[in-house]
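Table S2 (text version). Query chain:
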Amino acid sequence: MYAVVPDHTASNRVIVGGRELTMSNLEKVLYPATGFTKGQMIDYYTKVSQVMLPHLRDRPLTMKRCPDGVDEPSFFEKHAPVHTPEWARKVSVPSTADGDAVEYLMVCDLPTLIWAVNLATVEFHVPLWRVPMWSTVPGPPDHLVFDLDPGEGVTIVECCSVATHVARILTDQGLECIAKTSGSKGLHLYSPLSDRPSWNLAREHARKIAMDLEREVPDLVVSNMRKGHRRGKVLIDWSQNHPAKTTVAAYSLRARSEPTVSTPVTWEEVERCHQSGDPASLRFTAPEVLDRIDSYGDLFASV
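Corresponding C-alpha cell output:
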C-alpha cells in the first residue's frame, strides 16, 4: 500500500498509491552538511507516511520549500500550486488579513505527500483544526498547543523542566499532555480537546496557564514574546492557539543544517533530558526517527 513503484518505461516516473508521479533531481543534495539528498528525503517521507499522514489529513497545509537546499533561500507556500494534480484535495479558507480566500492543499494520502515532497517541501506545517464535513472553515480547535521556545543562554533542557510544569497543570485539569521536539531548539506540547471549545476559550485557557507559570517560576518562564524578556528563560508561546496559526507537523523534517525531525517523545525521555542536562538526548535525525517508529510506533497517536 505504501510502496513507491518505479515505472520502468521512464526513469523519472513512479507509481505511488496507484497515481503516476514524475520525480526530479533525486540526487540533488538538500542538506550540504550531511549530503542528505532529495531522493533520501522522498524515501524518508514514504517510510514515515503511515504514522505521519493521520497528523496531516484534512488540515490545510503550509509548505516550507527549499528548492536549492536548506542553506539557500527558502519560502513558505500557503496557496496550492497551480499545477496541483486534480486528484489532490484542496480547501478554500477565508483569509484573516484581507478577506480573500486562500486555496490550500491538504495532504490526505501518500501520493499527495510524495508529490509535495518532490517540490522540495522540507517542512510541513498545519493548523490546530481539521476541515469539518458539513460546516464552514475554520473548524474548532482539536487541541491546545504550547510552543516552548528557549531564549538566549538556555536549551531544550530547560524546556523539559517547563514541560513538566505544563503537564502537571493539564493533568490536574483532567487533560492529557503529549510532547514532541520541535526538530529545532524547543519542545511542543499538545493537549487534545474533546469538547471542541471556541477559539477564544482555548486561547485564553493556554494564556492563563502560561501566565500562571510565569508567576510560579519567574526565573524560568516568560509568557511575553518580546525578545528582551527571554534571555535565560523559556518562552511559553500560547499565541499559537489561533485558527490562522500553524505548527510544524509531527514527523516533519526541519530545514536545519542536518535532517532533524519534529519527533514525538515519551515523558521518561523528557525527564531524562532534564536530569542529564544533555540537549542532544532529544535530537533525532530522519534515520533515527524511523528506528524509533519500529520500536515505539506512533507516540503521537492520541493527538
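Notes on Table S2: The chain has two domains: 4-126, 143-296. The longest strand covers residues 143-150.
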